[in-house]
Design brief:
single chain, about 100 residues, alpha+beta, 2 helices, about 30% helix, about 25% strand
Length: about 100
């Protein structure tokens, strides 16, 4: 095995199709969060992209003015680093669903 190549694994993935679910192409969601992804270099640009998309989603689907969404995210938003190994950084921005009603 070459160095850094990882190790072989067996992985099981379960995908559930929810026919009545909505898909707006803006991001993803789970039971607790709405999330968007940004990928760029430098890392700050990746964060800006992720938050910009989350702000647009909040405005389009939840009736927020973009400035109000921005202000709410500065207090309640979360960011998570997903990748910092490849040439681009990938970050996820999220907000708890409970803040959006």
């Amino acid at each position: 095995m070459r160095r850094g190549a990882g190790a072989p694994t067996v992985t099981t993935v379960q995908v559930d199709l929810i026919r009545s679910g909505r898909s707006n192409g803006r991001g993803c969601e789970n039971e607790k969060f709405f999330m968007t992804i940004g990928s760029s270099r430098p890392m700050e640009d990746a964060a800006r992209i992720a938050y910009r998309e989350l702000i647009r989603w909040m405005a389009a689907d939840f009736g927020f003015e973009e400035l109000d969404a921005y202000m709410l995210l500065t207090q309640c938003g979360r960011v998570r680093l997903g990748n910092m190994v490849d040439p681009k950084y990938t970050l996820g921005a999220s907000i708890l669903k409970s803040y959006l009603g």
